[in-house]
Design goal:
2 copies of one chain form a homodimer. Chain A is mainly beta. Chain A has 2 domains: 135 residues, Elongation Factor Tu (Ef-tu), domain 3 (Beta Barrel), CATH 2.40.30; 66 residues, 2-Layer Sandwich (YaeB-like fold). Chain A contains 3 helices and 13 strands, in the order βββββββββαβααβββ. Chains A and B meet through strand 1, strand 4, strand 6, strand 7 and strand 9 of A and strand 1, strand 4, strand 6, strand 7 and strand 9 of B. Strand 1 of chain A pairs antiparallel with strand 1 of chain B.
Chain lengths: 230, 230
């Protein structure tokens, strides 16, 4: 049994799981801040990190703890009704709750009241996610553009067009709009929806509950409400 | 504190650390076998995995446990005398002893006396290394060929030419020769050697202790001895 120490937490605009992109790196406009825990708050541990454009995060699936081992999972992108082996997916429901994400390193803030902070883009992590390790992305060993992607190769990642009425969009801070629209365009609905979809959905993002409906290939935002702080 | 369960072990030709390539994927001829622990010995957990050409392994740096956190390390490839932040390296001496390697999936053996076995190539892992997670490599999110690789971009990975006398090479089983020669060509010496290098080195590989000297760009094998089983 190995025990792990939390070295940092990431702060993102996602207070809940619904709406988080399926994988890291899909929505570049999503920003995150990595703040180290007190024990690891040491600028010298980051010396040289500015030379890398991308980083690996190994993190804890903190909201997906399973009580017992289930060898198969139902990926939402396969419609949620086909079972696939857990080691053939990046599902959170796995023997050890370890997530792996590649993010872009945008900036190192060396001096903040919370010590050195890494500003990253493309993070598919819940706000407050505990991080166990940060490693540089090494293109000469990590990049395999011709790798075969299993069932993910055959999925049609259709984007939705987003109808966001100006009166509602105005409530969102300017610097958050691009990311929010991109999150919506990626179709945050669970994969097992039906063709005729009359449901109302909601995504919590950057302090707002953004409610929408989907008609065919068009996602229409119908309400934006400020979330009350917990 | 998170505790991790060992889901599998990998079997490779490296009984000791010296000689293991710096990163995974550099020597394709290196073969490994992943055998699951009893609790996770379930073929259905691998359903669909044959569709992927590459896998991520998250594993334990079992021989590199550090007693206390050191924020900087001296990468061998920087000559062993320059300190770099631990999060700017893939060094084993890190807060949590988690390794990350991309390997090629060559074959799934569904039925063996040890349950299903994954045959992989390119593994830079010590024989018997405990594995915590296996995830599919997803090229659409994991592959970034243009990423900047920090200090690793500026290192000259000069290969050595290998002079392996036929009488010595004959002692190595045929199917292990290509991998061994490639391991030697990658220059397994620690990075902090001096120009004039009179030392004898030894690499333990596939049951043999392979001793060599290096003169300039030529590595010459001087002895091959069978290792006695521990």
């Amino acid at each position: 049994m190995q025990t792990l120490d939390v070295i940092a937490h990431i702060h993102t605009d996602f207070p809940s799981k619904f709406g988080i992109p399926r994988q890291s790196g899909l929505v570049d406009a999503l920003k995150g801040e990595i703040v180290f825990t007190e024990k690891y708050r040491d600028a010298s541990a980051l010396r040289g990190i500015e030379g890398y454009s991308h980083l690996w995060l190994i993190w804890q699936f903190s909201k997906s703890v399973t009580e017992r081992f289930s060898p198969t999972v139902k990926p939402p992108r396969l419609g949620g009704n086909r079972r696939v082996g857990v080691f053939a997916t990046r599902s959170p429901f796995r023997p050890n709750p370890l997530g792996l994400s590649c993010v872009k390193l945008e900036k190192v803030e060396w001096h903040t009241p919370s010590g050195p902070v890494l500003r990253v883009a493309g993070a598919d992590l819940l706000d407050g996610t505990p991080i166990y390790d940060i490693k540089p992305y090494l293109p000469y060993v990590d990049s395999h553009p011709d790798a075969a992607g299993g069932f993910t190769d055959r999925i049609d990642y259709a984007r939705l067009s987003v109808d966001f009425p100006a009166a509602l969009l105005d409530r969102i801070p300017g610097e958050k709009r691009e990311a929010l629209i991109e999150v919506l365009a990626q179709d945050p609905r669970p994969g097992y929806r039906h063709e005729a979809d009359a449901r109302h959905y909601g995504v919590e993002f950057a302090g707002f509950d953004v409610r929408f409906v989907v008609d065919g290939e068009v996602l229409r935002v119908v309400e934006v409400e400020a979330l009350t702080k917990k």
